[in-house]
Amino acid sequence: MALTITCPICGKRNGYEFRYGGVEKGPRPNEEGLTHTSWCDYVHMNECVAGIQQEWWFHRDGCGVWFTTYRDTTTNLEVEKPEVDR
Amino acid sequence: MNRLSQLPTLRINPAEKISFSCNGKIYQGIGGDTIATALYANGVRIFSRSMKYHRPRGLYSLDGESSNTFMHIDGIPNVCAEKTALKEGLAVKAQNIKGSPENDLLSFMDKLHWAMPAGFYYRSMHKPAIIWPFAMKQVRKMAGLGKISPSFIMHGKYDEIYPQTDVCIIGGGPAGMSAALAAAKHGLRVILIEARPWLGGGYDYRASEYDSGMPLHQRARDLAKKTEETPNIRVFTSAAMVGAYNNNLITAFQVGSENDHYNERYIEVRAKSVVVATGCIERPLLFENNERPGVMQIGCAHRLARTYGLLPGTKAVFSIGHDLGIETAIDIHDLGLKILCVADIREDGQNPKLVAALKERSIPFLRGWLAIKAHGRKILKKVTLSTNQGTHHREYNCDILVASAGMTPITGPLIMAKAELTYDNHTGFFLPTKLPAKMHAAGRLLGLNHPLTIDASGRHAGLLAAADCAADVQGELKQAHEILDQLPGPERGARFVIPPVKNQKCFICFDEDTTIKNIDQALQMGFDVPELIKRFTAAGTGPGQWGIPGHNLPLYVAQCHGDVDVSPKPTMLRSPLVPTFIATYAGANHDMYKRTPVHDSQKKAGGIMQRIGIWRRARYFSEDFSCRDEILNVRKNVGMFDASTLGKFRIWGPDALKALQRVYVGDMSRIPPGKVKYSAMCNDDGCLADDGVVVKRGEDDYYFTTSTSRAENTVEWFRYHTRYDGWDFHMVNLTDAFGVINLAGPNARKVLEKTADTDLSNEAFPFVGYREFTLSETIPVRAMRLGFVGELSYELHVPSSYMRVLWDLLNKSGEEWGIRNFGMEAQNVLRMEKGHIIIGSESEQRTTLHDVGLGFLWYRKKPEAKTVGSFALKDTEQQKGRLKLVGFKMDDSSRTPEDGSIIVDSEIRGFVCTARHSFTLGESIGLALVESHLAKEGTQLEIFEASAGDKRLNATVVPTPFYDPEGNRLRM
Ligand SMILES: [Zn+2]
Asked: How many Cβ pairs closer than 8 A exist between chain A and B?
């Protein structure tokens, strides 16, 4: 509830306005050569990082855009993009 | 009781008389009273009884630091009488008593303390296991505070606000107000939260000197006036801060006065910077019977006199550990209370001026002494004082003992915001050594006592907060810092003294009846961390978590350890910091819903409206809830149905088709011109998410519908599943822009032909056709020939503003063809007879496309589209052990099971989705999801329904559609 999210279009807003869309895992895999296990992992498995992760958010009560941002799961605060990812 | 008058500090209006009742007796209070002060003025000393031992409890802090004055008020239990304003006609009752507060039949519990050691519930009552059911009942009967009637309805208005601000200040005392003024001077928006009904904090009722002869209470009033007059400071009084979270989110509950539009409201403040200036409370003195009515804190006695005009008793003894105690003793003496003696835990360090003032008044003063026992069976009669070491004793007969071990900071907001607190030996306080970003602390909670220092510390913190908001304050800040440095710093606090008494009832937590003996027991059992001892003994787990037990518990545990390396650690506090109504959390409860454009038209036509999802819709059009006539009229003549709640969307752009291919399971590249395509959406597990129709209206331009419940999520869904692709398409949600009427029945064409400007013959506009034309040369219609209810029908989509006209027009045109409205219930039966599903009725979370027999919609030859759900469908297509949708017919055609009834043999095998009596067929039929081995035609199903008791209802699996299996009626 204390979370704020920075929408690329609307700026920093109350976390209530957004819907969480999961951790960033890359685009949908091609169906060719895909196994059901690897597909299931893509859809359902998460690293559950204790620390900073890149994740998807949807500005539901706002401009309606999907975007990614970085959040520290240990403090539940939005953070700058970490150095290693730059 | 006569009130003191003429004091400049009074907050009462003796001219305003207020009548109320308590335990059946009528009392009179005055304007400005709280319930507790009014009762006190009427001689009431015992307010309620304690939870475990049923000990009498009275006025102790006057700030709600314990459950002592929790009472039953106008049907609501556990209302804090000392914080609740008195109102005319209130009905007050003592709680946790059998009999009266004075003669509680359960007071024998107090003698049974030996039988209830620490962790009593955890350690006993479960061995042998057989005693638990009995013990549990007895414990439940005895335990808990307050009773509420099951039929009680909470009246009142509850509101919520979510203000944003630059600086949020918690605490409206001198430090808080100085901080507010300092930040506001730089044009910043400031919110100030104060728990009491007025600003002023600890200065409000004190008469000692602020500076140059001005009393503190005058300073408080000057600051309050300035604060209230500053337009960019928003003041919330009677607002208790209850939560502090990261990101500087502060929550509070505000109690409304009679002129406010709310009884209570929730405030959630989002601030750029926060100043905590909550000040101090008193650390309770530990001695035998330290909670006997008549024992009270310094602030309680002082405020009774100075704020409410009530001298607390006739003869008082003071046992204190802070100069504030001496100051108060002198002031109350001068107001007329006889002070027998002032005992001070401190051996030295008192302000010599105060000591001289005691001497002037011939009040005996004992250094290094403290109270060790309060006598009196129900209320205080006598006090035993002792030297700190227990070497000498003295006794005084008195009715008031003002007891306080010293000051202790209100650290709740800091603890909840995860500030680092360290025990400081000089002040005896937990002081913040590391604060979260953009949070500052000021005032008395830092151990400051000199009024000028408190002001300066507030100003300094206000400027730091202003700096957080990018105000240019560097010069001013430097100056404020220098001023602060030159003023007296934190004062030495009284050291923690364990009373020289053994094995007695010294209460460390009043709410939970936890004594220091209980803590000793926990320590002996090996518990050594205060946080665990808190759990085990329940000390500090009550509503006064922030108050009475707060700091004595860790100090006592550290002292008992005798290990110098173990410094005391404060225990955790949890939101809400002070008790609040659940009603306030629930909020205003506005019944907000959507209405279709023909809401009023339908109501006028006898529609019985019901809340379904976010809409209010017409469910029936007569009192016959079987809807027999509505249904049969659609089958025989023609009916019209308001389908405006359907999700309606336009998607267009060069990549619109790609997006459709991604989310729809069908091949969307093949939508024939002038036709609708029915398709479905699945989630990534192949489970059914939505179904609807798509129309291609032009190049890269589509119009499609979704089920009602999916209308709000569809744009989000499309964009989510295409988020990596960077495709060029646009979407507009037209759900509210278009209304829909479904005109259905064998006469539908005749009705429409009357006003349409186009050829509606079966050849010109066949089944699953899509046409755009005009009705009455005015109304633009997008028409689809669909058959959801199983008859010739036209789904007419028109701009919302035309809906009422269209409604009237069709009613008029259809008169001669027997047109009637039909509602949700009739539609539900009609479509079920036809075997058509409604997502959410015939499907649940785990239901796949194949499970409901819609596998034919899946076009598997478009892997490049990466269709959502497609890959999973390959796996689930042949999966064993899935529930499959079947039609069934009841063996007894007069008996219909309830929706949701379960299908059983020796185990649960499925459930009934929808079942109704079909007037069309003269049968009772339904759709059910059953285990696949029961899905074969002719299988006997046993249905369990609660109302049928042990008797199972019998049904047989039959093919669907039940009605018109060849589909001739749709194609008429
Ligand atoms: Zn936005």
From this structure: 52
Reading across the β-sheet that carries B730-733, which strands appear in turn? B676-682, B688-698, B701-706, B647-652, B730-733
Residue B839 has pLDDT above 60, yes or no: yes
Residue ranges per structural domain of chain A: 18-26+42-86
pLDDT of B569 reads 82
CATH 3.10.20.440 residue ranges for chain B: 13-104
**Is A64 within 8 Å of B716 when comparing Cβ atoms?**
yes
Fold (CATH) for B287-404:
FAD/NAD(P)-binding domain (3.50.50)
Give the pLDDT confidence score for residue B954 in this predicted structure.
97
| Min Cα separation B868/chain A (Å) | 9
Task: Tell me the two tokens of residue B541.
Answer: 């787990």
Decide if B247 and A26 are in contact by the 8 Å CB cutoff.
no
Residue the block writes with tokens 């000393």:
B45
Task: Say how far apart CA B882 and CA B245 lie, in whole Å.
Answer: 46
Contacts of A26 in chain B (CB under 8 A): 724
Query: Which of A31, A46, A71 to mutate to probe the B interface, most B CBs <10 Å?
Result: A31
With bands split at pLDDT 50, 70 and 90, how would you rate the model's confidence at B495?
A: confident
Residue B564 has pLDDT above 70, yes or no: no
How confident is the model at residue B59, as a pLDDT? 96
Q: How many Cα atoms occupy the beta-carbon half-sphere of A52 within 13 Å? A: 11
Put simply, the answer to whether B685 touches A43 (Cβ < 8 Å) is: yes
Query: pLDDT tens across B338-392, in order?
Result: 999 999 999 999 999 999 999 999 999 999 999 999 999 999 999 999 999 999 9
Q: Which residue of B has its CA nearest to A58?
A: B716
Fold entry, domain B594-644+737-831: Gyrase A; domain 2 (3.30.1360)
d(Cα B167, Cα B191) in Å, to the nearest integer? 6
Query: What's the pLDDT tens digit per position in B83-129?
Result: 999 999 999 999 888 888 888 878 888 877 777 777 777 777 777 77
Quick one: CATH architecture of B647-733?
2-Layer Sandwich (3.30)
Quick one: fold of B13-104? Ubiquitin-like (UB roll) (3.10.20)
Prediction pTM value: 0.87
In tens, the pLDDT along B37-55 reads: 999 999 999 999 998 888 9
A66: CA distance to ligand 1 center in Å? Answer: 9
Please report residues of A whose CB lies closer than 8 A to that of B858: none
- Model pLDDT for residues B167-176, shown as the tens digit of each residue: 999 999 999 9
Closest partner CB to A77 (pick from B246, B721, B870):
B246
Fold for the domain defined by B158-280+410-486? FAD/NAD(P)-binding domain (3.50.50)
Instruction: Provide, as residue numbers in chain A, all residues whose Cβ is less than 8 Å from the Cβ of B871.
Output: 31, 34, 36, 39
Per residue, the 3-state secondary structure of B813-834, as one string, reads HHHHHCEEECCHHHHHHHHHHC
Q: Is A35 on the interface with B (CB under 8 A)?
A: no
DSSP B188: -
Which amino acid is residue B387, in one-letter code? T
Superfamily of segment(s) B880-972: Aminomethyltransferase beta-barrel domains (2.40.30.110)
- ipTM > 0.90 (yes/no): yes
A21/B720 Cβ within 8 A:
yes
d(CA B323, CA B488): 15
Cross-chain residue pair B872–A34, CB shorter than 8 Å: no
Q: Cα angle at B19 between B18 and B21, to 5 degrees?
A: 140
Task: Flag if B724 and A28 touch (Cβ within 8 Å).
Answer: yes
Interface test with B, best of A5, A66, A67, A78 (most B CBs within 10 A): A66
**B719 in A contact zone (CB under 8 Å):** yes
- A63 to chain B, closest Cα gap in Å: 11
CA–CA min distance B786, chain A (Å): 32
Token pair of B523, please? 């320590």
pLDDT of residue B499: 83
* B512: its two tokens: 């939970």
Question: What pLDDT is attached to residue B353?
Answer: 96
Pairing of strands B507-509, B514-515: antiparallel
Residues of chain B with CATH 3.30.70.1400: 647-733
